[in-house]
From TrEMBL:
InterPro entries: Reg_prop, WD40/YVTN_repeat-like_dom_sf
Listed transmembrane segments: none
Domain of life from the UniProt record: Bacteria
Phylogenetic classification of the source organism: Bacteria, Pseudomonadati, Bacteroidota, Bacteroidia, Bacteroidales
Pfam families named in the record: Reg_prop (PF07494)
Protein name: AraC family transcriptional regulator
Gene3D superfamilies in alphabetical order: YVTN repeat-like/Quinoprotein amine dehydrogenase (2.130.10.10)
Species, as recorded: Bacteroides cellulosilyticus
Length: 388
C-alpha cells in the first residue's frame, strides 16, 4: 500500500499541472534520414540520382562510377584494376532511361549505355562526343535522349543513332546548356549557363529563345502542378516565376523576392529545383543548403521553415529527385546525401515542464503506455506517472 501511495501522489500532481504546461511548440510532418545502403557506396560524393521504371535507384558518383541500389545491395559499375577500360571516367554526371529500359549515363569523358538484361556497358557510338564531358541528359516521352555537352545539344534515338545536333547562342555567344526539361505538354525546354531560356520548336527543328531579362543565368526549371506557370532557378537571383504565354517581358518573368532581404547571397545561387507531389512545395539546392517554398494563392512564394528538419550548417548539394512514393532524395558532397519523407500526421513536440516543476528533474521517460487520452510514463529513477 505504501508503494501505491508513492505512485498516486505524483499522478495527482501531474494531472493538475501538466495539462497547463503541455503546449504544442511547433508542428512538422517531415523526417530526414540517410540513404539506404550508403555504407556500400564507393564514395559519399554523389553528382546525380535517378529512379528507373522498375523502381531501382541509380547513383552517379564523383570518381566512384555508376551505382545501382536494389534496396538490399549496391552494384557498382566502374573501371578499376579488376575491370579496366569499362569507363574512361568514373565520374558520372547524369543518368536517364530510354523507352527500351536501357540506362544511359554521362561521365566527365563520354556517354555510355547499360543493358539491364546482362549489365553490359558500351560507349555511345558517336565519335564526335567521345571523351567529351557530358553536362546533362534527359529522356523524353517520344523516345528520344537529349544530351548536352561542349556547348552543343545532341538528340539520339533508343538505338543510339544521332537524330539532331543544335548550337544555342545567346547574345552572339555559344554557351553550355546546363539543364534539359520536358513539361506535361511534351515541350522540351533548356536553360543555358551564362545565357538564357529556350524551347524546342518541332516544326522548325530548332530552339527558340525567350527574352531572359537578367544578368544572372538560369540553372533549372520545373512546371507548376497547379498553375500555368513555370519556376526557374538562377545563379544569383533566386527563383523566377515564368509565364511563357505573357506578351510583356515584365509579366512573363516574375522575380521572387522572398530571399532578397537575406545578407547571404548563397541562398540565391541555386542549382536545381523540383516540386514535391505531396505538399506541392518547391525545393531547391542552393550554394549553401536545401530550401523549400510554399506557393501562395497569388502565385508568389513563402519560405518554409526547415530548422527542425535540417541544420543551418553549410552543405554542398547537387540534385533533388522526387521518387515514385513522393520521397525526396537529395544528393551532394557534404556532409552526405539524404532522404526527406512526409509523415501521414503531424508530430507535435510537447513541453513537459510540469515534470521539472513538481519533481525537480527534467522529463526522462523510460517507457510509455497510452490509455485513452493520457499516457502512463515510467520516469527514470522515480517510478510511474500519468501524463495528460
Amino acid at each position: 500500500m505504501k508503494n501505491i501511495g508513492r505512485i498516486l501522489l505524483p499522478i495527482i500532481i501531474l494531472l493538475l499541472t501538466v495539462r497547463i504546461n503541455a503546449v504544442p511548440v511547433k508542428a512538422f510532418d517531415m523526417i530526414e534520414r540517410n540513404l539506404p545502403n550508403s555504407e556500400q557506396l564507393p564514395t559519399k560524393e554523389l553528382l546525380c540520382i535517378f529512379q528507373d521504371s522498375e523502381g531501382y535507384m541509380w547513383y552517379g558518383t564523383e570518381g566512384g562510377g555508376l551505382c545501382r541500389d536494389d534496396g538490399y545491395t549496391v552494384k557498382v559499375f566502374r573501371s578499376d584494376f579488376k575491370n579496366p577500360g569499362v569507363l574512361e571516367s568514373n565520374s558520372v554526371t547524369c543518368i536517364a532511361e530510354d523507352c527500351e529500359g536501357k540506362i544511359w549515363f554521362g561521365t566527365k569523358r563520354g556517354a555510355y549505355i547499360l543493358s539491364k538484361t546482362d549489365y553490359e556497358i558500351r560507349a555511345l557510338a558517336d565519335e564526335t562526343i567521345k571523351s567529351w564531358t557530358i553536362t546533362t541528359m534527359t529522356a523524353t516521352s517520344d523516345g528520344m535522349i537529349w544530351i548536352s555537352t561542349n556547348r552543343h545539344v545532341f538528340r539520339y534515338n533508343a538505338l543510339g543513332e544521332r537524330t539532331g545536333k543544335y548550337i544555342l547562342t545567346w547574345k552572339g555567344q555559344e554557351n553550355t546548356v546546363n539543364s534539359i526539361y520536358e513539361d506535361k505538354k511534351k515541350k522540351v525546354w533548356v536553360t543555358q549557363a551564362k545565357g538564357g531560356l529556350f524551347c524546342y520548336d518541332k516544326v522548325k527543328d530548332s530552339f527558340i529563345s525567350y527574352p531572359w531579362p537578367y544578368e544572372e543565368y538560369p540553372t533549372s526549371m520545373t512546371e507548376d502542378h497547379n498553375t500555368p506557370y513555370y519556376w526557374v532557378t538562377t545563379w544569383g537571383k533566386g527563383i523566377v516565376r515564368f509565364d511563357p504565354k505573357a506578351q510583356d517581358t515584365d509579366k512573363m518573368f516574375g522575380l521572387q523576392t522572398v530571399d532578397n532581404a537575406s545578407s547571404n547571397s548563397d541562398t540565391r545561387k541555386l542549382h536545381h529545383i523540383i516540386q514535391d507531389s505531396v505538399k506541392g512545395y518547391l525545393w531547391v539546392t542552393a550554394a549553401d543548403n536545401l530550401y523549400a517554398y510554399k506557393i501562395t494563392d497569388d502565385a508568389s512564394l513563402d519560405k518554409v521553415d526547415l530548422s527542425r528538419l535540417l541544420s543551418a550548417d553549410r552543405k554542398i548539394l547537387t540534385k533533388i529527385l522526387s521518387d515514385q512514393s513522393g520521397n525526396l532524395w537529395v544528393t551532394g558532397y557534404y556532409p552526405s546525401s539524404f532522404i526527406i519523407s512526409f509523415l501521414p500526421n503531424e508530430v507535435l513536440p510537447l513541453s513537459m515542464e510540469g515534470v521539472k516543476q513538481n519533481l525537480g528533474v527534467i522529463a526522462s521517460p523510460m517507457q510509455f503506455s497510452q490509455e485513452k487520452n493520457y499516457y502512463w510514463i515510467r520516469q527514470k529513477k522515480l517510478g510511474l506517472y500519468a501524463y495528460d
